[in-house]
Amino acid sequence: MSEFLTSTDLHALTGYARPSKQAQWLKEQGIPHRVDGARVIVTTKHATNWIEGRTVVSSSGPNWSAVK
Q1: Is residue 47 assigned to a domain?
Q2: 2-49 pLDDT, tens per residue?
Q3: Which domain holds residue 27?
Q4: What local confidence, expressed as pLDDT, does residue 20 receive?
Q5: DSSP string for residues in the chain
């Protein structure tokens, strides 16, 4: 199993073939992803967590507010 969804997986998940529409759908659903040119990159971990109803958190770095 790959760490990232394939283009076929993304099409099945989002219902869209075009990367711009896939990215839009992922954003609306709150699934972390990256757009690299014409590619949309999503980890299987984030997709699985979303499908299972778990909170999907996108990290943007250290949580400095947690440091005492």
Answers
A1: yes
A2: 899 999 999 999 999 999 999 999 999 999 999 999 999 999 999 999
A3: 7-57
A4: 95
A5: --SB--HHHHHHHHS-SSHHHHHHHHHHHT---EEETTEEE-BHHHHHHHHTTPPP----S--GGG--
